[in-house]
Design a protein that fits this description.
Length: 161
């Protein structure tokens, strides 16, 4: 497993990937200046512009079975897949995602969402809300919240004694 990083936007680099998991959803953020070799290794696409728009990622084998059984009239280009490619980096990314899913052992399967830096605003806002160490608008950061909670507990303790 890769090293766990603090949940802060400082870690979102424009030339790479960032995986966030909250127990129910997994977000794979990709920066708009992503290295071309990274895009080829993970998505089998030569450039950022050729990546699908942000959205839910379908498992390739499930999508293939659906296409086989239902044979839709239109093409399925709107579905996003994370292809299992035959290179070490793709295998590692897919293994990390699979391990993260099985680690939870809940009654549900965590959905994987691809979030492009310039993609769907709602999906990007949802993913950015997971960065609890950042201060957003009027809300305090997680550290600021803990400090204010500690101060409130200290005040209640002083009044009670």
């Amino acid at each position: 497993m890769p090293v766990l990083l603090p949940l802060t936007s400082e870690r979102l680099v424009r030339h790479g990937l960032f995986l966030i998991e909250d127990g129910q959803s997994i977000f794979l953020w990709i920066g708009r200046e992503a290295v071309p070799q990274l895009l080829m290794d993970v998505f089998d696409k030569p450039s950022y512009d050729q990546l699908p728009l942000s959205g839910k990622v379908c498992r390739l084998f499930i999508l293939q079975r659906l296409l086989f059984w239902f044979k839709p009239q239109s093409s399925s280009n709107s579905q996003i897949t994370l292809p299992p490619l035959n290179n070490p980096f793709s295998k590692r990314v897919n293994a990390i995602i699979d391990y993260t899913r099985t680690m939870r052992r809940g009654p549900y399967w965590s959905q994987l969402y691809l979030v492009r830096e310039d993609g769907d605003l709602r999906l990007r806002a949802w993913m950015l809300s997971m960065l609890v160490l950042d201060r957003v608008d009027q809300a305090s950061s997680y550290q600021q919240f803990l400090v204010s909670l500690r101060e409130k507990v200290r005040q209640v303790t002083l009044v009670a004694s």
